[in-house]
Amino acid sequence: MPSPASPHSPATPARPAPPAHTTVLAAAADAVLILVFAAIGRDAHQRGEIVIGVLATAWPFLAGAAIAWLALRLWRTPLALWPAGVGVWLGTAAVGMLLRALTGQVVVLPFVIVALLSVGVFLLGWRLLAAAVRRLRARRRPA
């Protein structure tokens, strides 16, 4: 009985790892956009304590993103919409809400919906823009 092809067999060549700076920039973009999400939310509700408040709001979502990055090994394809973008989006939202609930922070349905949509737009949106830029650059390169 033939054995199934391993991920490193000649039949399925391994995808080369992206440069380290690409991975670092992708993780930083995710973190910055999560901080922007928290800052916008705090500003919309006119809450004080700008820096500490934003960090207090953002930390569960930043932890969720970090857990998603580690659990899904997103450094292998950090710019991909699938699985990286979708994985970090859903991991950020799910773990973030769980941590908020466990620490006594507000978790109500309207906030869950707004957070899910906002974080999705941010974390998927920049990856879509990056893909568009890569396609444009590839078209402009001489053959």
Features:
mainly alpha; elongated
| Multimeric state | single chain
Number of strands: 0
Q: What is the first-to-last residue Cα distance?
A: 44 Å
Describe the biggest sheet? none
Strand content: under 5%
Approximate helicity band: over 70%
Detailed description of the structure:
There is one protein chain. With 143 residues, this protein is mostly helical. The protein has helices at 20-44, 50-71, 81-102, 109-140. The radius of gyration is 18 Å and the shape is elongated.
Write a compact overview of the structure shown.
With 143 residues, the protein is mainly alpha-helical. It is built from 4 helices and no strands. Helices cover 71% and strands 0% of the residues.
Write the layout of secondary structure elements.
Layout: H1 20-44, H2 50-71, H3 81-102, H4 109-140
Helix pairs in contact: 1-2, 1-4, 2-3, 3-4
